[in-house]
Inverse folding.
């Protein structure tokens, strides 16, 4: 005879109603067996109502709606622009809610530091959703390569065609992505793979490429180096993701992964584990701050070089 699991579901509220919330976060949260989707908050009441109705939960809007959703939740997930996310994450932490944030945490070091400090002060768990750290296929690959010594160099290329001629992606309507480009949008993904495998970044050089493309040269604490190319404006035929490491045992290339919703469910599991154990996840708010520091330094260098 087995004992039924009496652990209550983790009540997670969702802040945001845009494409990312509709396509990934809300479906993943609503279907998760260990989660109760405690509500959806949006800046537009009609969007919040539509998304909440689609997933059988309550809609919130306005400033008072944020406070009400925080009160009804154990944790909150964010599907908002980074510089809207950051102050709301501080507010949520101060209300005692655990944090499931999107990358980047913020686009300023001060904003990301405020989040990390608020989470630490409130003793709440936090996870930053860097997709490849939570997709089952890629997270297993990262762990496997991180356990191997002798890596000599690595190459990461993440080129999207979001802003290429003829693109009809709904994510192209995101003002912050258009303003900050591939460095800030997909840079966290690449760095979240390279750092656990090769060690932290101890030196960074950045240069601007065509359109929003940014090139990075990184030296890591292991002694290995890596090169990174990031952008959202590549021609469709040039778009794609490649990450490979080379060393004493040869070459290893990151596998494909099933999709964002599966990966997001992995991030939810990671947050629940951090809440249960009190052990911080490697991709927590402190790691989100570090990524922001690296991206800000790269942006400054690239802008000065383009200048």
């Amino acid at each position: 005879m087995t004992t039924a699991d009496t652990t209550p579901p983790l009540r997670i509220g969702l802040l945001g109603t845009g494409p990312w919330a509709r396509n990934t976060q809300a479906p993943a949260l609503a279907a998760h067996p260990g989660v109760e989707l405690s509500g959806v908050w949006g800046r537009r009441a009609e969007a919040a109502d539509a998304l909440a109705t689609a997933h059988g939960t309550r809609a919130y809007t306005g400033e008072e709606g944020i406070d009400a959703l925080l009160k009804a939740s154990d944790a909150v997930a964010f599907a908002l622009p980074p510089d809207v996310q950051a102050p709301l994450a501080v507010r949520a932490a101060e209300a005692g809610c655990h944090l499931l944030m999107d990358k980047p945490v913020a686009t300023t070091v001060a904003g990301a530091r405020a989040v990390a400090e608020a989470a630490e002060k409130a003793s709440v768990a936090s996870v930053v959703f860097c997709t490849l750290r939570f997709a089952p296929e890629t997270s297993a690959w990262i762990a496997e390569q991180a356990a191997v010594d002798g890596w000599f160099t690595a190459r990461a290329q993440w080129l999207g065609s979001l802003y290429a001629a003829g693109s009809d992606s709904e994510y192209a309507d995101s003002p912050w992505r258009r303003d900050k480009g591939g460095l800030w949008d997909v840079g966290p993904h690449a760095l979240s793979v390279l750092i656990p495998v090769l060690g932290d970044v101890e030196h960074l050089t950045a240069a601007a490429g065509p359109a929003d493309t940014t090139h990075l040269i990184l030296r890591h604490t292991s002694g290995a180096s890596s090169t990174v190319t990031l952008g959202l404006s590549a021609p469709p035929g040039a778009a794609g993701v490649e990450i490979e490491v080379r060393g004493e045992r040869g070459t290893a290339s990151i596998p494909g992964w099933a999709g964002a919703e599966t990966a997001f469910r992995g991030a939810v599991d990671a947050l629940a584990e951090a809440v249960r154990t009190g052990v911080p996840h490697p991709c927590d708010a402190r790691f989100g701050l570090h990524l922001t520091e690296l991206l800000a330094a790269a942006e400054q260098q690239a802008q000065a070089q383009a200048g």
